[in-house]
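Bug #77: duplicate submission created two jobs. Keeping one. Sequence:
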Amino acid sequence: MRRIRFRVDCVPPKKDGSNSMWGKPTQAQRLIALRKAAVEARGSQPCFISGIRLTLSVHVGPQPGDDKNRGDLDNFIAGVCDGLMAAQNDPKIDSSFNEFRGSDVHPTSTVVIQNDSEVVKIDAEKLHVDGESWYEVELEGETG
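Kept job's structure:
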């Protein structure tokens, strides 16, 4: 059983139904931040492959133009899970990812989760804060 933990200083990526988040500029920037932090936390260790437990703590500050709409926790969870594995079904990919071609940050690479169907437990919370948004991810599971 291995564990990693990392913090990302922005709002998490949000999965919005069947629409791909990989091709949207705002979501692409969030995905890049997530993937960079995860790659750094993972180091040279292999990806999680089974028995994965995810803990997500989202601290959401006021959003520009709409302080009341701070995002749905379930969309954040799906965005983080999908963002930590390789993009599925050959989606349109935003040009923001071009500079990361060939690296683990690029959507064609698996970052820390081989397949999010292997996530067996999720503990998540969303807290409204007055300051800047940030979130913390902890993953635990078997690697391979």
